[in-house]
Amino acid sequence: MGRYVLRRLLQMIPVFIGTTFLIFVMVHALGDPVNALFGDKAPDPAIAAQIRAQYNLNDPLWLQYVKYMGNLFRWNFGTTFSGQSVTSLLATAYPATLKLTAVAFTIEVVFGIGFGLISGLRRGGMADNSVLILTLVVISIPTFVTGYVLQYLIGVKWGILPATAGDPLTLQSLLLPGIVLASVSLAYVARLTRTTVAENSKADYVRTATAKGLPRRRVVINHLLRNSLIPVVTFLGTDLGALMGGALVTERIFNIHGVGFYLYQGIVRQNSNTVVGFVTILVIVFLAANLLVDLLYAVLDPRIRYA
Amino acid sequence: MSSSMSSSTSASSRSAEAGQDTVDSHDAPLLEVRGLHVEFHTREGVAKAVNGVDYAVRAGETLAILGESGSGKSVSAQAVMGILDSPPGKIASGEILFKGRDLLKLGSEERRKIRGAQMAMVFQDALSSLNPVHTVGMQLGEMYRVHRGLSRKDAKAKAIEMMDRVRIPAAAQRVGDYPHQFSGGMRQRIMIAMALALEPALIIADEPTTALDVTVQAQVMDLLAELQAEYHMGLILITHDLGVVADVADKIAVMYAGRIVETAPVHELYAHPAHPYTRGLLDSIPRLDQKGQELYAIKGLPPNLLRIPPGCAFNPRCPRAQDICRTTVPPLFEVTDDAGVTAPGRASACHFWKETLHD
């Protein structure tokens, strides 16, 4: 097990370098950041040259990358063009996004698995059909539509929950954005759970559990659900990273100053240090989540053992 | 009955001894199934899987139910256990008397308490029938925890004891292993241990050795027969393997298209079958003295349960079929010998059982 974890950690290094370099190249391809900084006005050549020198923009791309990575290992993410350190931006943005993700993830797990279980146990019934139709609707509608509609209805018109989540973030104000962020993943989790539950409910070991005279509740939770969750956990793990990155739209709708919010600004202003810095952390989160899932997988399914 | 018991359970000497002094034909039967009908409601129509089955098992007795796939042997057993897939399965009519009580009249919670504790089932494929994500110790211990309310620790100790009972080597070390870490024979032993854990009065074994190697088959059958005699349990052995039956069963019920077509004490059935279907089954067994010759096979296929032929269900495949077979369903006739004396426990659902018997 320890050796497996070590190997996985070592494998992360090339993945990490590859993804960050790719981001670096893509941000560079957006165009000249100094021109973007000045907008429509033509920049003063002297100031432009000074900025270029300060941010190593005259170096070839690979050297810029090497210098950037060198700083990164000293936990120096550089500064934005406006002079703010990216590290301080990260420190404000990530806690907000983590809170939002935590709320969304909880909703996704509890309701996704819950609906999926009910649906899978009563395949073809009323509850099952409602879940199928509802999830299809949720999956088909883009998040920004769901977001604005729910914000208007629940937040503005009926005033059940706060329409936006400003500072400080409270659980109550994060509920609505959490639901919006979770909605699509929740629909997928419900459908995936439904399928595996329905499939496994015909399994021989479920019949054995019933024949043993176990109460229905124990058969469903200890035997049926326990086995059905294996693929669901895989999905949830990869989705955790996607939730954090995907908060971009939701954060803008509900005015949450999180990763998505700053990342969006960074892209619009072609602020490469911001974009690369934020994405680098996202990549690390994603890799860590994936490793966690693979380890969890072995815990859930004893037939899988890592050497 | 008791004489046939002692000779038929020659699988192990222990069971033979126990069999002799325990079988008492004057006892009320442990399990009595009367007029059982099971239907499956499918999109294409109603499949009549079990069409009026009657049988009885006494404590310490082994009843073998023989039949090919789709004959209703497993479905009738599932109905007895109360683990029928419903829907689509449904018990249309009948009575299942267990220790004098009609199980079909009990509530679901009462039935659950009987399952596992008083009647238990051993399934065919132990690998898929055991839960892959739980240790065998947990799955065995679960019986004690749920039915007896034992603590985790005590249940584990009991699980080890049971594993010892079914002769799993180094039980104490293996109690934390998962099903996939055991061999096929060992897994089936665990299934047996699980079924026997609470010393039920009745065991239903559904093709318990079909998934095993031939060498292991005999060991598992011997173990089952031995424990059955030790605990004085009734055993229903469902199988399509005539070889397995010969050694351990006291009496046999042959099923075809959801009905019992012949019942007989095991050796009489082998020596003088009274139903053409049984005859066909016996003739299909490969024999050493017929080496090199083509193997006999019953022509045709088992009927579609959605469209069981009128009259005797076996008539389209029967070499002896007459007009009456195509119109009238034969009841179970009592089989008598030449002097007209009824043979105990013998019956055949064939209009021409006499002729068949004398073939």
**Terminal-residue CA separation of chain B:** 26 Å
CATH topology type of chain A: MetI-like fold
Which architecture of chain A does the CATH hierarchy give at level 2?
Orthogonal Bundle
Proportion of residues in extended strands of chain B? 15-25%
Shape summary of chain A = globular
What percent of residues of chain A adopt helix (DSSP H or I)?
over 70%
Number of strands of chain A: 0
CA distance, first residue to last residue of chain A: 6 Å
The major β-sheet of chain A equals: none
The fold-level CATH name of chain B is Rossmann fold
Biggest interface, which chains?
A: A-B, 24 and 29 residues
Q: Can you identify the CATH superfamily of chain B?
A: P-loop containing nucleotide triphosphate hydrolases
**Helical stretch tally of chain B:** 15
Average pLDDT reading of chain B = 85
Write down the CATH class of chain B: Alpha Beta
Radius of gyration of chain B: 21 Å
Topology, please?
The complex is a heterodimer of chains A (307) and B (359).
Chain A: H1 2-29, H2 33-38, H3 45-54, H4 61-72, H5 86-121, H6 126-140, H7 143-157, H8 171-200, H9 204-211, H10 216-253, H11 259-268, H12 272-300
Chain B: H1 2-8, H2 13-22, E1 31-42, E2 45-57, E3 62-66, H3 73-81, E4 89-98, E5 101-102, H4 108-114, E6 119-122, H5 126-129, H6 136-148, H7 152-165, H8 171-174, H9 184-196, E7 202-206, H10 214-231, E8 234-239, H11 242-248, E9 251-256, E10 259-265, H12 266-271, H13 276-283, H14 323-327, E11 333-336, E12 342-348, H15 353-357
Parallel strand pairs in B: 3-8, 3-9, 6-7, 7-8
Antiparallel strand pairs in B: 1-2, 1-4, 4-5, 9-10, 10-12, 11-12
Helix pairs in contact in B: 1-2, 2-10, 6-7, 7-9, 9-10
